[in-house]
Design brief:
By secondary structure, this protein is mostly helical. It has a domain at about 10-90: Arc Repressor Mutant, subunit A (Orthogonal Bundle). The chain is built from 6 helices and 2 strands. A two-stranded antiparallel ribbon has the order 1-2. A hairpin with a 7-residue loop joins strand 1 and strand 2.
Length: about 150
């Protein structure tokens, strides 16, 4: 019996997690911290409230993540230019370099993975993955908005 598509997707997710853990072993960077750095890389300097929303975590969790990344020299807090009550979180120059390397690695891995697919099948594979990811996101959002359905 062939593995289900879901089994393959779970395998891919596990392999990505293991590769990420290997890549950041000894750096003090966790998956959550890297995710926050990735959000900052793409969003630019942001308030902690915005980062909490982008990362899908609570304000309390984002404070802990920012504190840890500030202590490790990856981010810094700066005054907000127009709101005296707010601060912006931004990447440090060394973290900006790290994230640029990570972005390049990301592009290279993307190309390597696409190379595993026959050229004539690549568009269909990409469309299928997009459709699956979009549908799964809708299901997860729907499940989160209807918690009573999971209750016994």
């Amino acid at each position: 019996m062939n593995p289900l598509l879901l089994d393959r997707l779970l395998q891919i997710g596990d392999l990505f997690q293991r590769d990420m853990a290997r890549a950041f072993d000894g750096t003090g960077l966790t998956t959550a911290r890297v995710h926050l750095l990735w959000m900052l890389q793409h969003a630019g300097p942001s308030t902690q409230q915005t980062l909490a929303r982008l990362c899908g975590v609570t304000p309390r969790n984002i404070t802990g993540l920012v504190d840890a990344l500030e202590a490790s020299g990856h981010v810094r807090r700066t005054p907000h230019p127009s709101d005296r009550r707010a601060v912006l979180v931004e990447l440090t120059p060394s973290a900006t370099e790290t994230m640029a390397r990570m972005q390049n690695d990301h592009v290279e891995l993307n190309a390597t993975l696409l190379d595993a697919v026959a050229p004539e099948d690549r568009d269909a594979v990409e469309r299928g993955i997009i459709a699956i990811a979009d549908h799964l996101e809708r299901l997860v959002i729907q499940a989160a908005s209807e918690p009573w359905k999971d209750a016994p």
